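Whether sequence alone determines local backbone shape is best considered at the level of individual chains. When preparing material for the folding task, we compiled for one chain both its residues and its backbone structure tokens. The sequence in question and its structure tokens are set out directly beneath this paragraph.
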Amino acid sequence: MDELPIFTAALDIRLPWYIKRVHFEFENGVKKLYIQVAHTRRTKFPYEGVDCPVYDHQERSWKHLNFFQHECYIYGRIPRVKAPDGTIKLVKVPWAMPGSSFTLLFEYNVLNLMLEGMSASSAGRHTGICGKRVFRIVKRHVGEALCDQGLSPVKALSVDETSTRKGHHYLTVLADRQAKKVVGIVPGKSQDAFNQVLIAMEVRGAGREDVRSVTMDMSKSYIAGVCEAMPQADIVFDRFHIAKQLNEAIDEIRRQEQRQYNELKGSRYLWLRNNASLTVNQRERVDILAEAYPTLGQAYRLRELFKQVMDEALVSTRLRPLNDWIKAAWASGIKPIQDFVNMLRSHWYGVKTYFKKVADNAFAERVNLKIQEIKRIAKGYRNINNFILMIYFHIGGLELQTHSK
């Protein structure tokens, strides 16, 4: 039986290319399969729209997917052509990207392994190459996708910072809340970093003038960046970040009370969790402690009421419930609660827009969690550019080809 037609069909080799020979070789006691390709005589190959005659040939080889348990390589004398401008160019082959030492099917396999959650080193061990070469494959495909795939106009942005490693090392990450994908990443979390990440978004075709709202925490750098670069966009402070600040006020009150009353020891998370998520026994304990320590109890009730007010924004744009809460919170006379009220007043422009837009930074927080998972799988990144590359790879919304057409 002639095996050449089988390998030709399996590899989808088409004229003017054909498989000339298939053979095994022993190298250091290991059996490897070699597939030799060639082209028909007198073939002219296109270069920039012009059919050019063959000038000479260059020996090339590519690592392919294993043939059963055997390593497999495609090799051959690849033609070079003389371009109209007189330069000599190597012909592009249909089974590999220019400059690559791997076939496209091999690279698709690597991309799929990475998408499934493998680290570069694990994918390398699985395919028989080193982790650095895996990164080069990913970098090539992601780089081409970022260049070729532009962004549609972005109207709803979220901005957040995420840590790259221990210490003060951060990335500023822009995400499209509607398209659910990352549209820009740069090192740092300053106002300059925010300006740079906007440029990264604009390079791919999405203009800052189209943005209508930006959700964020209360970072001064990001607030200043939006006010300066996108004055037409509404700033929307993330409700969960606001709630976190109120929780910090509750915890401060608890610590003050605990210095005098030992009964409050071990109760921290009872006060920080939502009342609805407590067990019956936990709720009973909170009720008893709230009655015994009225200052803490009043602050806790204000927090639960604040949650209800923010939940009402899902069905109503009325600000009166929030204004009523602010009056009641101020009247409590509890300093940490009054400090929280002052914070709301000083950031009122971004608090009230939450009721108008009903937008939050939840997607940005999910992005942050995914980024930390990417970092954990790789056990950290020494090279920040590789980290950014992998973020785009996993959550950049890129249409990466991972199988043959």
User: Anything to note?
Assistant: The mean pLDDT is 90. Residues 80 and 91 are 6 Å apart (CA to CA). The radius of gyration is 30 Å.
